[in-house]
UniProtKB/TrEMBL annotation:
Gene Ontology cellular component annotations, sorted alphabetically: membrane
Protein name as catalogued: Amino acid permease
Coiled coil: none
Key word NADP present: no
Membrane recorded as keyword: yes
Keyword list, A-Z: Membrane, Transmembrane, Transmembrane helix
Lineage of origin: Bacteria, Bacillati, Actinomycetota, Actinomycetes, Micrococcales
Membrane topology (UniProt): Multi-pass membrane protein
TM annotation in the entry: 21-44, 50-70, 91-117, 129-148, 160-180, 192-216, 236-255, 282-305, 335-353, 359-378, 390-409, 415-434
Amino acid sequence: MAEHTGHPAPHPGHLHRTVTLWPMILFGLAYISPFIVLTTFGAFSEISGGTLAGSYLLTTVAMIFTALSYGKMSREHPVAGSAYSYARRSIGSRIGFMVGWAIMLDYFFLPMVVWLIGTAYLTAQFPTVPKWVFVLAFIVITTVLNIIGIKLATRVNVALLSFQVLVLVFFVVLSLRHVFATPGLGVTLEPFWNSASTVGAVVAGGAVAAYSFIGFDAVSTFAEEAVDPRRTVPRAIVLTAAIAGLIFVVVSYVVQLVHPGGSFANPDSAALDIARTIGGDLFGAIFLATVIIAQFTAGIPIQAAGSRLMYAMGRDGVLPRGVFGYLLPRLGTPVFNLLLTGLVGLLALFLNVETSTSFINFGAFTAFAFVNISVIALYLRQRHEVHRTVLGWVVQPLIGLVVILFLLTQLNKNALTIGVIWLVLGFCWLLYLTRFFRREPPEMTTLEESGEAALERPASSAET
């Protein structure tokens, strides 16, 4: 869709430019969900060796450098807001295709991780119930709702976000009260670094902690609704990453004071045990209810978004049209795509939070790396036409790239193996689509663009 040109009357198919900076940041924080720092605390702290605050600090620095690159690219391309779009336009269509393929890994596994986290906490509360019962319940309920076609708003749900933030604040306050009231505990720097710490553990913790930041660039979806998008969107992206990082560092620091070290009876649901320790059974019940509500409210739109993206790619010929481009005639929903993500969700029966989040981070790190590369490529391509500083357009993205690649190498070996296999499959598919590079690859529809297209369809069109 084209941008407004200053005419006061809205043109049919155009969005009103009314969204300002802070509403955009709130949307980004809601998309990230700050509560994730608690639901993943035990698993990530165990990997970091009890220095999760240090790991989050490292990852926050990496995310801010990458967010600056996202900001630059969103300023250059204020409509399309994805790593795929940036790589395609700055580097080339084939590289762009591979970046888009890597990002698809996130959409396949994100619902599974959401369901797995919810299952871990329910299993801890009800240990006599088999794990598969909760996994299937999450998958079936979420998938059925999406097939029926319930349309849930993808914009910030202020009430839910406020409730999660309130519980988060209570968790921090109760944690501090517990620390000051318990002999042997106190305010120290050990959550950042202690006598048993190793650089490898802190970095490994940072590699998985990056999962918490996924979605900080989601504010780019407001590019056509933002007031002064070339200025507002980049600032919102950077501030969202910085504020989220600050929340993650502070919360993980305080909670790590309550439970020094990285050893837990059940790392996947450790925060529930800590909630009971600091606030008793009542607060533990409130915390568990918040976790389950958060997992459902996250799982439904995440599965719907992934299925919509796969449908758009099937419709455009990037994926087999007969399967991925199929809509259920009566309901108009991409039923095969929803069932596929449901089947992938069954892998939660065999994985833990660490391994599953590593799969997600492989795709995310690939995207982040190529956003940084796109900034450098754009500088080199236009250096004789547009004046830009080497510090801002080469040094800064290069630092972001190096840190991201370093974190990538620290991911779980299984995640790296599956990630490489996924890229090889994507390369083989690219060879097929391009007839061994004799033609251009088909252009992918990004999630943002598929959403814009949905807005332009008549109201009678069936949507997920």
